Amino acid sequence: MPHETKLLALIAVGFATAMLLGFIAARLRLPPLLGYLVAGIAVGPFTPGFVADASLASELAEIGVILLMFGVGLHFSLDTLKQVRKIALPGAVAQIAVATAIGAALAWWWGWNIAAGLVFGLAMSVASTVVLLRALEQRQELDTQDGRIAVGWLVVEDLAMVLALVFLPALAAATQGEALRTGDIVQSLMLTAFKVAMFFAFMLVVGRRVVPWLLGQIANTGSRELFTLAVLAIALGIAYGSAALFDVSFALGAFFGGVVLAESELSHQAAENSLPLQDAFAVLFFVSVGMLFDPSVIIERPLDLLGVMFVILVGKSLAACVIVMAFGYTSRTALTISASLAQIGEFSFILVALGVSLNLLPPEGRDLILAGALLSITLNPFAFSTVAPLSRWIDEHPRVQRLLSLGRKPIDPLPPEVSTAHLHDHAIIVGYGRVGSVVGEALAAQGLEFVAIESNHRLVELLRGQKVTVVFGNATAHGVLDAARIDKARLLVIATPDGLYTRRILELARRRNPSIAVVVRTHSAGEYDYLIRQGVDRVVMGELELALEMTDYALQRLGVSEARSKLVVQWLRTEGMSGTSGGEAHGKKEFHSGDTDVPEGNAGTTQERP
């Protein structure tokens, strides 16, 4: 078969198989990445049927790595990291160290050398950002405190792996056979660090000025295809130039190119235009990784694979849980971070591929990592499903809580000098973030008493300094709602977007105070309908409230009276929005032009804050 035909066959069969298996994975509520890896196994040399050209796949995969790393740099957010740096930075570094040490010890037990153990451990220490973001989005936790910590944690992990990709060639150059010479390692690492520093200096002085300016000049031409070509040329050009001039890896060059371009006002357009090619070559990268996997490792080395799964699912997750709880966070936050890290993905593949190519890692190490990735990504949804029950169990056992937090005494739900015994007919606000704090400020401005429940201990300390009555802890934990005097409260405001968390709070609150009025925040139409069926007094869905506010404005601007407009909005809220999750409204009441009475309470009006 001619070389050109092999290339066409690889792209056609690879894309078609990846699309089919990725679709099946998505329908099973698994990350499509899992389907792409299985597609690679299907067209690889270790399974019957069509066998793609592995050498061509690796060449295309290199482009995939460059564009993948360019995208990571383009979306790199220092702001996200700054928000959670006090926990994410030390926590991620400590977790990487622990996971790498456990993995290296496992490799040493198998008889591998120190270099192989280091690469093996590093590959298991880093989680997949793609899998994490999808899991958080599915659970509507991306914008929560737990979600921000998890994303910041992954940002630190990605940075650590970028540095690892830089120094692995230096480690390989200093390795002779099975022996590692300390002097050669130090010398090689120092030389590499100098080259990287020179590259960074060049990019900071020249790149951050030239690249945005060049992209701006091309954008001024108004040509979309030329702009897309420029973005790809910058990504591939910086990656190749960094390797040719500074002996820096393609991955680091592409990553830093993305970081530099992210400072441009055109970064969002650059990301949008490069995304289709980035996705396409990333799929080929995952397919090529799957082609290298030998499924026989599952049968031939089942105990070794169990060891790998133990490190991924238990070792590094337990380390993360202990670290987060030792910083004073709740068990729920700690377990959410642990579940987020209980898988491995794209950086693990890049590391093991580089490790094998540099003869630092034996091929069976790559097979074990790939098998661990397939299994851990598949099991990750189940890891998240254990967060709520495990959190409740830990909270009900103080000794376990003390052990996991390394003996640190938990923050008291209420400080000794604060008492809620006098409260009666007050409000309880669960979650004092962007939404809950607005409610709290409005209540305080009217002289109304309320108690906040918050699990972010730094926010709790800040609020207590402002003389806000706040109970620290998870609202579903034993005694937290009682500390807020749920039995005497008149109103419960649940300002957290987590649906499962909300359901549990609602169950506990009504068990202690059946007559309490409840207002709940949600982002899901299905959750909206469920809460309405449960008799919640008011459910606020962000997208719905935006639509109603815009409807109110549009009607009034088009000549409809204010009273009439408010009536329409109220009708939409109470009657017209029933059954939204099913795609159509069930039991809608028709709105007639003669219905002019504004419903009692005038719930559609927008009140100004005092």
UniProtKB/TrEMBL annotation:
<dbReference type="GO" id="GO:1902600">
    <property type="term" value="P:proton transmembrane transport"/>
</dbReference>
<dbReference type="InterPro" id="IPR006153">
    <property type="entry name" value="Cation/H_exchanger_TM"/>
</dbReference>
<feature type="transmembrane region" description="Helical">
    <location>
        <begin position="148"/>
        <end position="173"/>
    </location>
</feature>
<feature type="transmembrane region" description="Helical">
    <location>
        <begin position="6"/>
        <end position="26"/>
    </location>
</feature>
<feature type="transmembrane region" description="Helical">
    <location>
        <begin position="185"/>
        <end position="206"/>
    </location>
</feature>
<keyword id="KW-0406">Ion transport</keyword>
<feature type="transmembrane region" description="Helical">
    <location>
        <begin position="305"/>
        <end position="329"/>
    </location>
</feature>
<keyword id="KW-1133">Transmembrane helix</keyword>
<protein>
    <submittedName>
        <fullName>CPA2 family monovalent cation:H+ antiporter-2</fullName>
    </submittedName>
</protein>
<dbReference type="InterPro" id="IPR003148">
    <property type="entry name" value="RCK_N"/>
</dbReference>
<dbReference type="GO" id="GO:0016020">
    <property type="term" value="C:membrane"/>
</dbReference>
<feature type="transmembrane region" description="Helical">
    <location>
        <begin position="116"/>
        <end position="136"/>
    </location>
</feature>
<dbReference type="Pfam" id="PF00999">
    <property type="entry name" value="Na_H_Exchanger"/>
</dbReference>
<dbReference type="GO" id="GO:0006813">
    <property type="term" value="P:potassium ion transport"/>
</dbReference>
<keyword id="KW-0813">Transport</keyword>
<feature type="transmembrane region" description="Helical">
    <location>
        <begin position="63"/>
        <end position="81"/>
    </location>
</feature>
<dbReference type="InterPro" id="IPR036291">
    <property type="entry name" value="NAD(P)-bd_dom_sf"/>
</dbReference>
<dbReference type="GO" id="GO:0015297">
    <property type="term" value="F:antiporter activity"/>
</dbReference>
<feature type="transmembrane region" description="Helical">
    <location>
        <begin position="341"/>
        <end position="361"/>
    </location>
</feature>
<feature type="transmembrane region" description="Helical">
    <location>
        <begin position="275"/>
        <end position="293"/>
    </location>
</feature>
<feature type="domain" description="RCK N-terminal">
    <location>
        <begin position="424"/>
        <end position="540"/>
    </location>
</feature>
<keyword id="KW-0812">Transmembrane</keyword>
<comment type="similarity">
    <text>Belongs to the monovalent cation:proton antiporter 2 (CPA2) transporter (TC 2.A.37) family.</text>
</comment>
<feature type="compositionally biased region" description="Basic and acidic residues">
    <location>
        <begin position="585"/>
        <end position="595"/>
    </location>
</feature>
<dbReference type="InterPro" id="IPR038770">
    <property type="entry name" value="Na+/solute_symporter_sf"/>
</dbReference>
<feature type="region of interest" description="Disordered">
    <location>
        <begin position="578"/>
        <end position="610"/>
    </location>
</feature>
<feature type="transmembrane region" description="Helical">
    <location>
        <begin position="226"/>
        <end position="255"/>
    </location>
</feature>
<keyword id="KW-0050">Antiport</keyword>
<feature type="transmembrane region" description="Helical">
    <location>
        <begin position="88"/>
        <end position="110"/>
    </location>
</feature>
<keyword id="KW-0472">Membrane</keyword>
<feature type="transmembrane region" description="Helical">
    <location>
        <begin position="368"/>
        <end position="390"/>
    </location>
</feature>
<dbReference type="Pfam" id="PF02254">
    <property type="entry name" value="TrkA_N"/>
</dbReference>
